[in-house]
Amino acid sequence: MKTGMPFGLAGLWENWKDPATGDWVCTFTVITVPSNELIMQIHDRMPAILRPGDYDRWLGSELDPDDLLTSFPAEPMKMWPISKRVNSPRNDDEGLLTEIDLALAS
Q1: What's the rounded Cα separation, in Å, for the pair 40 and 96?
Q2: CA-based R_g, the chain, Å
Q3: Which residue from 22, 49, 82, 90 lies 20 to 30 Å from 2 (Cα-Cα)?
Q4: Is the sign of the CA dihedral 46, 91, 13, 55 positive or negative?
Q5: Around Cβ 72, how many Cβ atoms within 10 Å?
Q6: How would DSSP label each residue in 8-70?
Q7: Each residue of 41-70: pLDDT tens digit?
Q8: Domain boundaries of the chain, sorted by first residue
């Protein structure tokens, strides 16, 4: 966000026991929605971003809060180019978020 504040994403999680091994497995998914005009520059889908006032609804017992699954407005958001290092799970450091100069990127 332009303000630098963190934001929440709509997702689902489940813990289940693998019948083959007996091990407990934790799984999750991030729900996506059509991109807004900012994100559309790089992809046609984006995570469903929740407003702080909607966290309780999403995490609560409401059976179908599907009206929260909409494209977040572009105006409060910002984006910047980052290294292609982000494409590998082997890379997990704060430097992944550092803005790069696209003219120097190869």
Answers
A1: 21
A2: 17
A3: 90
A4: negative
A5: 21
A6: EE-EEEEEEE-TTT--EEEEEEE-EEE--TTGGGT-SEEE-EEPGGGHHHHHSS-S--GGG-S
A7: 999 999 999 999 999 999 998 888 999 999
A8: 8-77
